[in-house]
Design brief:
Blueprint (H helix, E strand, L loop, with lengths): L6 E4 L9 E6 L3 E6 L5 E5 H7 E6 L8
Antiparallel strand pairs: 1-2, 1-5, 2-3, 3-4
Length: 65
């Protein structure tokens, strides 16, 4: 589905003009960062799942080191 570090597309566009977001924190709440302007938003997991459209890129697995 989705995990930390993935780039997701949200249903609505951000005011800066992009709808690509990177997931930077997972838990009961999910923190996402706009890849256009760097704005950070925290959403509840339920709200995030409702507003997410699809996963664009999966995170690289080089974070294991």
């Amino acid at each position: 589905m989705y995990d930390k570090g993935d780039v997701v597309m949200m249903k609505k566009q951000h005011p800066c003009g992009t709808n690509e977001w990177e997931i930077i924190r997972m838990g009961a709440d999910i923190k996402i960062k706009c890849l256009g302007c760097g704005h950070i938003v925290m959403l509840s997991r339920r709200n995030f799942e409702k507003r997410m459209k699809k996963v664009l890129r999966k995170a690289t697995t080089s974070e294991e080191d």
